[in-house]
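Check these lines:
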Amino acid sequence: MKKGFTFIEVIIVIAIFTIVLGAISSFSLNFYNNQKFISDYSNIVDQAKFGVFRMVKELREAKTGEDGSYPLVFAGDKEIVFFADVDNDGVVEKVRYFLGSVQSADYTQTCSTNTTGGSCSVVFSNFFNGTLVSASAKVSGRGDLNQGNEYFDVFADGVKLGQVCKSGCSQCGSSFEGTQTFDVLSQARDNSLVLTADATNDVNICNPKMEAKFELSVSWNDTSGDNILKKEVTEPTGDPPEYLPNNSTTTVISNYVINTPPIFQYYDKEGNIINDTPARLKDTKLIRVYLVIDNDINKSPKPFELETFVNIRNLNE
C-alpha cells in the first residue's frame, strides 16, 4: 500500500522550493542590475567621448568673435570660453564649457547729487561666489535731464561706459527714465564694482539736481559639489554684434564628471604649463582636456579617464 506525503514532508518541500526560488530570483535581479549598470556606464562614457570630440573640434577652429574679440576669452581649470562657428552657419558663436551650476542675482542702488554738474557713485561688492559669467548694469536717471545738453556720463571703475538721458527724459520727473544697459563683466570680475554718474554742467535745477539708479545683474558658475559638465552657446545679435546672456542655450555634456585634477590645462609654445590665468589667454598654444567619468565609484568598472590634446590654429603667434 502506497503512502502519500506527510504534512511535515510537504512543509519541507515547500520550504526548499521557496529557498531555491528566492535564490534564483535574487540571482536574476542582481544579474539584471549589473547588466543595467554596465549599460548605463557604457552610455555615460559614450556621451562623454562624443562631447569631448565636439569640444576638441570647436577649440581647434576657435576664431575671432563677431565683435572683434580675441578667440580665447577665459581659460580656467574647469571652465573655458572661446569663439567658434559651432554650427557652420558662417556666424561665430561664443562657446563656454564649464563644470558647475549657474547662479544669478540682482542688486539695486541709487545715488544723487544736489551740486550743479555734480557726480555720485555707488559701490557693489561680494556679489558672486564662483566664476563670474555675466555682469550688466542697467542705469536710469531723473532730475534736470530734459535737454540734449542735460545728461550724465556713466563710469565703471573709472572706465566710461556711455551716457544716460541724452534724450527722452523729463525735467524734475518723478520716475527714473532714459534706461541704458551696459556690460560690466570685465570690471566686475574682482567682485567689486564702483559705478559713477557724472552730470554735465547744465544739470543745475530740480531737487536733487540729478539722481541715478543702478541695477546690477550678475550670473556666476558655482562649482561647489557639482559634477555636471555643460556647454553654453551664445549667438551674436545687433549691429555692432553683441553676445548677450539672454541669447544663450545650455546643454549637458556629462552628468558624472568626478575630476580632482583640472579639466583644462594650458601649455605655451615651449610645452610649459601655464598656471597664471591672464597669461593663458595670450600664451596658450596647446590645451589638454582631461575628464574622469564614473556613475558610481563604489562599483566596477573603475572610473573612465578621457584625455586629449588640442592645438588652437588661429591664436596669434
Notes: Residues 17 and 23 are 10 Å apart (CA to CA). The longest helix spans residues 7-60. Residues 41-77+256-311 form one domain.
